[in-house]
Amino acid sequence: VQNNIEGAATLTFTDSGITAQDGTAGYEIDGTALTITESGTYAVSGKCADGSIKIKKGTTGVTLILNGLDLTSADTAAITCAKSTEVTILTADGTENSLSDTEQNNDENYPDNADAENAVIKCKDGSSVTIGGTGALTVTANGKNGIKSGASTDEDGEASLTIQGLTLTIDAPVNDAINAEQLLNIESGRLTIDASDDAVHCDLVLNVGADGTDGPGITVTSCYEGLEAAELNVFSGKIDITASDDCLNAANSDLGDYDFTMTISGGTINACTSAGDGFDSNGDLTITGGAITVW
């Protein structure tokens, strides 16, 4: 990441605007709103009480490096990856980064807010987004979701969200910490989640870890349901969940007659629920490995 910063377009946020360290094209600045319009590497830093970053629709090959960024957006997402984008968001080594929104970033509670995206990091339909790096990121979702990933469509392409490497803390007092509609891969890193609704929710396929790897460390301190997907696969990792309903759930009420599956082949899972199920598969449940404790 550090080597990438040396050749990156460097942009610094303040409450009054965004300053660029060079004349590199590929972005537009409007007050405290940054729009990335071309492929390339962009390093962002600074502090801003009301600003935003957007990757323009159809833009691919974008690397966005968070290099000590403290960014709040008042009425929209702090970072938006528009439809059909390909984006890698990296936390620079040794840096602390913070992204947050306000309660106005919720079009159900604020129907007049046309800019609401209902998530601090919004990845729209057909976007392929990876969030990683060797630094730390704290996401505070005062509007609705922490991180939201969209669907795959014929028009916009395949959607996916991958999380790897970084130290990620999400506080989601309104809804889900992470919500994906298509494919969600949590490969590695350390995640700490406090959510009002689901900690990690995916409408279709959720993969945690990978065969032959240590996988991620996931600590869910509070939530309604812990990990939920129509197809939930745990390959590796250390997962500690404290939930008020199901800790792990293979389900999606919108799919109807669907072959739900939960497959656990490795990792260490500590599942503690106060009122629900430790594991709940509304279809097949296959356990071939791992160390499992359910309270």
**What coarse outline follows from CA principal-axis ratios?**
globular
The H/E string reads: HEEEEEEEEEEEEEEEEEEEEEEEEEEEEE
Q: What is the rounded distance between the termini? A: 41 Å
Mean residue pLDDT: 96
Helix content: under 10%
Count the strands?
Answer: 29
Structural class: mainly beta
Rg computed from alpha carbons, rounded to a whole number of angstroms: 19 Å
Separate helix tally: 1
How would you describe what is shown here?
The chain is globular and about 55 Å long. The model has no long low-confidence stretch (mean pLDDT about 95). It has one helix at about 1-5; strands at about 10-15, 15-20, 25-30, 35, 40-50, 50-55, 60-75, 80, 85-90, 95-100, 120-125, 130-135, 135-140, 145-150, 160-165, 165-170, 180, 185, 190-195, 200-210, 215-220, 225-235, 240-245, 250, 260-265, 270-275, 280, 285, 290-295. The protein is about 0% helix and about 55% strand. It has a 29-stranded mixed sheet that branches. The chain is built from one helix and 29 strands. A hairpin with a 2-residue loop joins strand 1 (about 10-15) and strand 2.
